[in-house]
Amino acid sequence: MPRKRQTGQGGLYFDATRKLWIGVVDNGYNDLGKRRQVRVTSKSQSIARDKLKKVMDEIEQFGSPLGNQTVAEWGAFWLEGIKAKKPQTYRTYASILRTWVFPVIGRKNVKDVRPSDLKAIYENIKRAGKSESTAVKAHTTMSSMFESARLERITKINVAGDIRPPKASKTKRGTLTPPETVRILEQSRTAPNGSKWWVSLYAGIRQGERIGATIDSIDFENSTFTVQWNLVEGNYEHGCGGACGRKSGHCPQKRLVIPDGMPSRVLRGRYMLVPPKSGEPRTFPLTDKLRDMLQVHIDQLALKPNPHGLLWPNPDGTPTSGRADQAEWRALLIAAGVTRPEATTHWARHTAISDMSAIGISDGVIGEQVGHRSPGVTGGYKHVSSQDAAEAQRKLDERRQLR
Quick one: 128 exposed, middle or buried, by C-beta within 10 A (0-12, 13-18, 19+)? Predict the structure, then answer.
């Protein structure tokens, strides 16, 4: 009489009809009290035995077998969860996975991915002539994806944690010289929306914060400006459940994804306002010149359509795109006689930070005004409405010697 197999021991037998070796092991009971079994198969007895041992080890270590999803399957599922978060984060992760990760390891089982697989992805990025920062983004994306898989018992480990992450070489931040900055500020006095470049060069706000600023950001009584919104393009999802066969953005029943648990205001189409990158509003003081310029600007806005209450909208009141904002900046530089074709709008932010540092403003005061999140930068901040913050703006005026 054959020995009875004990629970958890597993068994291996040959199915002559199918010409397969079959391994089977118990994995607890289902909701109806019936025994739940896990099966593995192979034409080779040794391979079937190895598969069975692997499943048994997983049950012993984790209480159940690890998942069998491929990287492409798990990645698509994981991205859906990211979609309900910050829109730009989703688009970055989706682009990295579809361009660099899925083509290389998309068909591999998540639990079978090895450090060498990730290194192959980084090498592909390098051979394609892409920047080192692209490899860093790929590592960050995969690290987050595999960590989620580990927590869901899809894999034993986060394989990205077993290799040294790529490092992006430090590049010098582009900044304008003091004479260039003065020429741009002077040119902005008469330029349409010129006040937004003053705010950018004094407070170092980001592009999304600039084009997402609203009229109620300004407190004229206390001469302060509060950065409370960031303009982003949201993501669409299928309203038909994917039955249309098109991409979500072209679905006839498409729906805009509203970020979970995040304050937001949908403006038009995909444009929406979400909190700034730091997650919290921040306030900085206005110089007399800047406050007066903003007052004139708002008086002019009152004569134009502005359904969303934006501070620097398009002439028809619609939100300004990042591309249009960049084009306006380049036109301003040309008009001011500043020959810097490589200068993006982010140079205004770098210039504000560089100038405040040059006149001796502490990293804490600078960081709070420009919205740095790093504890190493923001440690020991004083409140932005303090005398130190106002003094920083006054010193900037002195440095730039504006009339």
Answer: exposed
pTM here is: 0.73
The number of domains in the chain is 3
Q: Which residues contact 123 (CB under 8 A, 6 or more apart)?
A: none
Q: Is the same domain home to 52 and 80?
A: no
Residues, the chain: 403
pLDDT-derived band at 103, boundaries 50, 70, 90: very high
Domain span including residue 224: 178-228+281-400
Mind giving me the DSSP string for 324-348? HHHHHHHHHHHHTT---TT--THHH
Element (H, E) at 70: none
* Torsion over CA: 135, 137, 138, 140 (sign): positive
- Provide CB contacts within 8 A for 17, sequence distance 6+: none
Query: What is the arithmetic mean of pLDDT over 86-95?
Result: 89
Q: Coil, strand or helix: which one is 305?
A: coil
